[in-house]
Amino acid sequence: MSGIPVIAVFDVGKTNKKLFLFDEDYKIVYEKSARFIETVDEDGFPCENIESLRLSVFDSLSEVFRLKQFDVKAVNFSSYGASLVYIDDEGNPLCPMYNYLKPYPDHISDDFYSKYGGKQQFSITTASPPSGSLNSGLQLYRLKHTQPGIYKKVEYALHLPQYLSFLLSGKACSDITSIGCHTGLWDFEKRSYHNWVAQEGISDILAPIEPTDSVFDPLFPGNALKIGVGLHDSSAALVPYLVNFNEPFVLISTGTWCISLNPFNHQPLSNGELMDDCLCYLQYEGKPVKAARVFSGNEHEQQVKRISEHFGTDAIKYRDVVFDAAIINKLNPSNNQPTPQGKVSAFGMRDLNAFENDIEAYHQLVTDLVNLQVKSTGMILTGTNAKRIFVDGGFSKNKVFMNLLAIALPEMEVFAASMAQSTALGAAISLHKAWNSKPLPSNLIELNYFVGNTHVPSN
C-alpha cells in the first residue's frame, strides 16, 4: 500500500529551520525543526553555517523518504532574503554566506550610488531603500570590488532559496520573488534588471530567471520527485491570500518585523515613502506589491521585559492579555505626550510609574504600537480601494492588538487570519499543479473578525 501523497517544504528562517510535509488538502502531517550555531566570516562577523544547512537538507529528506506512510511528490523552499551563496563551476560555495546585517562600508556605498544615478533616484527606480548589506545587489558589488580573486571564480550568485533548490536539482536559477525584494537589482519601471547589473558584468553570474511554479528533476535518478525553485519568505506568505481572495486586501504579516503588504497598490514609490521604509516586493506572479515595515515585534519583546522588570511580573503573563476597553478609555492623553521617533513607538519614552499596574502599562504599549502600525499601513493604503485587512503571525493572536487595530481603522474590515505556517504553505501551493491531484481547497485560511466600537484617545 502506497503512502499519502505529500509535498516537503523547507522553511529556513534566520533562527529556526523547519521541514513540513503537507498532504493534498494542505494539512501539515509531519514537522521537524532544527537550529544551527552560527559561524563567522573572515572578518569575524556572524553568518549562516551554510554547510550545516546543506547537510541538514539531505539528512532530513533521507529521514522522510524512510517514512513509508508518506509518498513525497515534490520539494520546495522558502527562506529569508538578502542572502547570496556564491558557487564555483562545481557547485561549491566559494566563501561564507555573508550576513545581511553586516555593516556596509560607506566609501563603497558612496562609490556605487555616485556611479549609478544617486541614492535617491536609484532607490526609487529599484524600490529598494538604501540599506547597505540588506540590498543583496550591493553585496555583489562589494564582493567584486573588494575580493576580485573570489569574484572571478563565481559561476553563479544564488539567493538562498535557489541555492537550496540547486542542492537537490543541480539546476542554477533565479526567482523573481528573491530578485524583487529590496535587492537593488530590479528596475521596477523597465520590469527587468537595472542597467548597472549589465554595466558591472554582474548579469554574467546571475542564473536564468525561472517562473515560480517551475519544477526540475532531482539529481538522484530513478525518482519522479519534482524540485521547486524556492521563494522569498514574505512573498510566499502572501500566496495563500492571493489564491483565496479576489477582493482587494492588505496583509499585515507580523513577527519580529511587521510588514504591511498591498498587492493592489500599483502607484510608484515616492522619495518620502522610501525614506520612511516603504518599498516594493515582487509576488510569485511577478506583479509588484507595495510594502511598509516596522520593527514592532522586536520592540514589543523589549518593552514587555521592561514592564515585567518594573512591576516584578513574569513576561509570560503578557502572551494572552484580555482586552479591557475601560483601560483604553482611561488612558487619556496628557498635554505632554511623547512623540514617536521614526520607526519606534512612543512607549519607550513613557514613565512606567505613571501607570496603576502592569496591565494598564501593557495596554498603553500596544496602543502605541498600533499607532505606529496604522501610520505604516496607511502609506500603502493610500490611493487604493482595499477595505479588508488580514493580520497573520504573532500579533494576530494578541486580542489587545487586534481590537485596537480595528478601533483605529473603523473604515476597514479587520480580520485575524489563522493558518498553518503561511510561508511554508505558500511555497507548497505555488507548486500545486506539479504534484497535487486535487483542486485547491477554499478553506485554507480561518478568519476572525474584529469590530472597532470603542472610543480610543488619539495619542
Low-confidence stretches: 454-459
Mean pLDDT: 91
Shape label: globular
CATH homologous superfamily (4th level) name of the largest domain: ATPase, nucleotide binding domain
| Structural class by sheet pairing and helices | alpha/beta
Number of domains: 2
Proportion of β residues?
15-25%
The CATH architecture name of the largest domain reads 2-Layer Sandwich
**Total number of helical segments?**
16
Q: Could you give the count of β-strands?
A: 20
CATH class type of the largest domain: Alpha Beta
CATH domain fold name of the largest domain: Nucleotidyltransferase, domain 5
Radius of gyration: 23 Å
Share in helix: 25-40%
InterPro entries: ATPase_NBD (IPR043129), FGGY_C_2 (IPR049382), FGGY_N (IPR018484)
Keywords: Kinase, Transferase
Domain Carbohydrate kinase FGGY C-terminal: 247-432
GO molecular function: D-xylulokinase activity
